[in-house]
Specification:
By secondary structure, this protein is α+β, with helices and mostly antiparallel strands. It has ten helices and 17 strands.
Length: 410
């Protein structure tokens, strides 16, 4: 199976599927169709019924072979890769039997090292796929796509392994927060599902951040600096002032676990106009609302010092903590926990410090926790995938389908 994983992951990551937050179409980029159409063909070749709509949602069904009335379980992964770093000309490299020493990434000066990424200690002895240092890898989430495809291939080739009805979804635009926006839960028709979109071995995540985006726009008055006294208003400095009034320790690089944060993603502009783009994250809904309120209070406070209102703010919620919905369906957590135990995989249910398509899908009526894929350091040149852990993830998918049969047999 390992050779098949490497071959399939290599084929998928070398297809550029980067999404575009500035596009209003779905998918946000035409190139996502290249992988979606390939997957549609490959699923059809495996004998599955497929259904792909004009917005890039590819659904497929593996019919039950268990001969009994069983719930339908779904497995999902997204095909797009992050717009945060170069995703063209991906040139994956294989490291066999990783010995823990620093890995030089291609001909670049970038080094993949345990000194910077200590979690790499967990994959010593593994076969790794890494980048050549010039692009991201795209294992987020093509590793999840691979794992679902390999699990389905195994089940079609081993009819003696009994399972209920299985639904598969490959979706666009998760990386720009739109993955489920046009997802038809009713058409998908699963009782519960799992996103294969996690990281380290053992992750089983059913709590996520509440998330919002904030755009702060600072309007200045630009005049000649020689006659600027009491007239010039520097929008750049307004932006700096705004950011300085946020709690300086409540940022991603200084928080962990359930701690929330403000993250300044982008700042651009000039004296006349400057914009700041933030994401706001918190697991607790009350604290989440207070964070948004704090941004508005800062805006209002600064504006009181001017005759007009030089600062505007737009806040849009993105997704909510899926734990609030999954709590009422504990069986969707208990089933993979039992599979992890049978496979001797320690279970890690720490909350996601981020979100998955499952965050939104759970609020749309489809309980959807998140499961590990074996990848790490997403969205940049230091991304890697453990082929060993990917193999375990495939076993988990197969195990879940069997555990559903065991759980619901009459």
């Amino acid at each position: 199976m390992r050779a098949n994983i490497i071959d399939r992951l290599t084929r998928y990551v070398t297809i550029d599927t980067q999404s575009d937050p500035n596009s209003e179409s779905t998918p946000s980029t035409e190139k996502q169709w290249n992988l979606l159409n390939l997957l549609n063909d490959e699923l059809t070749d495996l004998g599955l019924k497929t259904d792909i709509d004009e917005q890039g949602y590819l659904f497929a069904t593996l019919e039950s072979n268990a001969g009994k009335d069983l719930p339908t379980v779904g497995f999902l992964a997204h095909v797009d890769t992050s717009p945060d770093f170069n995703a063209t000309d991906v040139n994956p490299q294989i490291i066999n039997n990783y010995d823990g020493q620093p890995i030089k990434l291609g001909q670049t000066n970038r080094i993949l090292s345990q000194d910077i990424f200590p979690t790499m200690k967990h994959v010593e002895g593994h076969t790794l796929m890494v980048t050549d240092g010039t692009s991201l890898l795209g294992a987020d989430d093509k590793a999840g796509v691979v794992e679902i495809m390999e699990a389905i291939k195994y089940l079609t080739e081993h009819p003696e392994v009994k399972h209920g009805p299985i639904r598969i979804a490959f979706t666009p635009d998760e990386e720009i927060g739109r993955g489920p926006h046009a997802f038809d839960v009713e058409r998908f028709n699963a009782d519960f599902a799992y996103t294969m979109d996690g990281s380290e071995l053992g992750e089983l995540q059913y709590e996520s951040f509440n998330a919002a985006e904030a755009i702060v726009t600072c309007h200045g008055v630009n005049v000649h600096p020689g006659s600027a006294k009491n007239t010039l208003i520097n929008a750049i400095l307004l932006g700096q002032q705004f950011n300085s009034l946020l709690p300086q320790n409540e940022v991603p690089e200084r928080t962990e676990g359930y701690e929330g944060f403000y993250h300044l993603m982008k700042i651009e502009g000039d004296v006349e106009k400057t914009t700041l783009q933030y994401i706001i994250r918190d697991h607790d809904k009350t604290n989440f609302d207070l964070r948004k309120k704090r941004l508005v209070e800062i805006k209002n406070d600064i504006n009181t010092h001017y005759s007009d209102t030089p600062i505007e703010i737009e806040i849009n919620d993105q997704y909510y903590n899926m734990g609030e919905k999954i709590a009422s369906t504990p069986h969707v957590i208990d089933i993979p926990k039992r599979v992890f135990e049978k496979l001797d995989i320690p279970t890690n249910t720490d909350p996601i410090r981020g979100g998955t398509d499952g965050s939104q899908l759970s609020y749309m009526g489809l309980p959807t926790p998140n499961i590990f894929t074996g990848c790490a350091n997403f969205h940049g040149p230091f991304e890697y995938a453990s082929i060993d852990v990917m193999e375990k993830a495939i076993e988990v998918i197969i195990g879940i389908t069997q555990e559903v049969v065991n759980t619901y047999k009459k």
